[in-house]
Fold:
Amino acid sequence: MRRARRAFSVLGAAAAMAAAANAQATPRSGFSAARLARIDSAIQRYVDSQQVAGVVALVLKDGAPVYQRAVGWADREAGRRMTPDAVFRIASQSKAITSTAVMMLAEEGRLGIDDAVSRYIPAFAKTRVAVQADSGRAIVPARRAITIRDLLTHTAGISYGVESLVAPLYEAAALGPKAGYGWYTADKNEPICTTIERLATLPFVAQPGERFVYGYNTDILGCVVERVSGKALDVFIRERITAPLKMKDTQFFLPAEQRARLTAVYASASDGRFVRAPDGPRGQGDYVDGPRMSFSGGAGLLSTAADYARFLETIRRGGALDGVRILSPRGAQLMHTNMAGALHGDGLGFGLGFETTDRFGANGFSTEGSYGWGGAYGTFYRVDPTEGLVMVLMQQLMPDATTLKVRFPTLVMQALVEPRRK
Structure:
């Protein structure tokens, strides 16, 4: 374990993953090698049955890889096999990184978690809410200001604008149905703050603080980061998070010379098999070619399994990794401590960046205190601080009608036969 941990830290994420391509449990890890092999069998079944084109799966225990596989195709039509360093569109997994940027600025005293968003984006000074009325739709004033905390916990009442009550208004503003499934901005020829200021003129779907509503919240936070820091979001994330943590493959748009590393997007078809997704917002997207102007803090980043695991390991260790500290231990803890109460679900919560598991049994086999989320292209991650685990599953399937990302954490946890939690 010491040798593997040193490899992951010293060689860097991509090199360590290549070295650990056949990583398996050691007697000291608490994992059963025979039970970890069940993950191999399960993933291979999804690939062999053509439900999924290709997968990269990675599990760290105390920072060292105990399981890592690359299976299937990165691009079947081009004949490219999946590799551990394949680049994936991580969509909403971007949210945790942007939320970290917000927490960094809070720790510097440059913003407050309970500040009104309008302090940084004046267009949010007087927001409105759409409600159902006898005449159809009525638009009423918000009862209070939306705060940074509301955005971090997805309790601001802001959706992706695809609900029938508001969809026509959002579509007319080039958002909602005009933005793929609502969240896609990579094809926009304008800075993210321009898009967000236009969003502020539209009605939202719930009053601030009343319920959990998933939507443009973290894209708004990306604009806040730009306004507070004076830097474009891509620059801030590169200079303050990804470069210091040696996450060299995490960025908003891929350089043209790395095009061959980007995994193709597929879609679940009616017969259960995958088909290649089209070009454009509901498929391959503009992550290599295109304007390269809109830095979506909520859904725009690309990454690899190793890079994202490295970010999660930093949070798991209290905001620092390999001598680089990006957050204080308390700041990191706040990100995975439930701040949404019961609004997110029974036994689940949402912290200042991550979904939380607050009761054993509420989220499959997950330990109380675990946290994670996923992305629209079928990617998934979870951190179990009690067991020292980081789990990452990468695929590119949108829409994803499979059960792989739901079953993956169960497959990992069933293999842990000597847990620290009794």
User: Anything to note?
Assistant: The chain is about 30% helix and 15% strand. The first strand starts at residue 54 and ends at 61. Residues 1-21 have pLDDT under 50 and may be disordered.
